[in-house]
């Protein structure tokens, strides 16, 4: 997905599309293998913006630093028990999640 909009326009659009969701509602997306966990040190909207802009170098850096990781089976099992709340945004086909900030 690539948009011809300024970064601030993209960020504003993504901010409006983000939301909070519990793990139990994310399970179908996990089953499809499309859920990525974003480290709490990184702004979720910045990551989503990089996906929208197809900024492969930035996304690759985060992946290499394990600041952006595909959700593992072990994480999914742990979250199934505690059903935590996440901030989430869909950048089709991907779902980006981050533990909700209180």
The fraction of residues in strands falls at 15-25%
Alpha plus pi helix count = 5
Coarse shape: globular
- Integer tally of domains: 1
Round the mean pLDDT to the nearest integer and report it: 90
Helix % is: 40-55%
Number of beta-strand segments:
5
Low-confidence stretches: none
Sheet of most strands: 5 strands, mixed
Going by helix content, strand content and strand pairing, the class is alpha+beta
What would you say this structure looks like, in words?
By secondary structure, the protein is an alpha+beta fold. It has one domain. The protein is 47% helix and 24% strand. It contains 5 helices and 5 strands. A 5-stranded mixed β-sheet has the order 1-4-5-2-3. The N and C termini lie far apart (31 Å). The model has no long low-confidence stretch (mean pLDDT 90).
């Amino acid at each position: 997905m690539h948009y011809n909009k300024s970064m601030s326009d993209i960020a504003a659009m993504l901010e409006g599309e983000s939301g909070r969701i519990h793990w139990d509602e994310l399970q179908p997306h996990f089953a499809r293998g499309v859920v990525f966990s974003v480290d709490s040190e990184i702004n979720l909207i910045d990551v989503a913006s990089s996906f929208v802009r197809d900024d492969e170098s930035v996304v690759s850096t985060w992946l290499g630093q394990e600041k952006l990781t595909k959700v593992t089976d072990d994480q999914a099992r742990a979250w199934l028990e505690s059903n935590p709340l996440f901030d989430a945004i869909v950048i089709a086909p991907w779902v980006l999640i981050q533990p909700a900030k209180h």
